[in-house]
Design goal:
The chain has 4 helices and no strands. By secondary structure, it is mainly alpha-helical. The protein is flat, with a radius of gyration of 25 Å.
């Protein structure tokens, strides 16, 4: 992929998803730049505990595996719960008090 100056991107860490694919304008930066995601260093897994899921999950994301759309959800439900407060039981307590001795 060549930029306006004619330079080609040789390092995939600097390549952004929007450079390769058509993305939405409100795409968060964490989806547009795969190099922001950390924790994919390679260490040899123990052969007994190696699974296909850990093989797939241990692969660092690239611009081809990053999402090119993001549709965030509102916080209406959480805001309502925060305003209402925690549940409090107002019934009759019939449990015997425990002696601290």
């Amino acid at each position: 992929m060549a930029d306006a100056g004619g330079n080609t991107a040789s390092n995939t860490d600097t390549l952004k998803t929007s450079d390769v694919y058509k993305t939405l304008t409100n795409l968060p930066e964490r989806f547009n730049d795969p190099s922001m995601l950390k924790g994919y260093e390679k260490k040899p897994p123990h052969p007994v505990y190696q699974t296909t899921s850990s093989t797939y999950g241990g692969t660092a994301p690239s611009v081809h595996t990053m999402p090119n759309q993001f549709h965030g959800r509102g916080n209406k439900f959480t805001s309502h719960l925060a305003a209402a407060g925690n549940y409090e039981y107002h019934g009759l307590n019939t449990e015997l008090d425990k002696s601290p001795v």
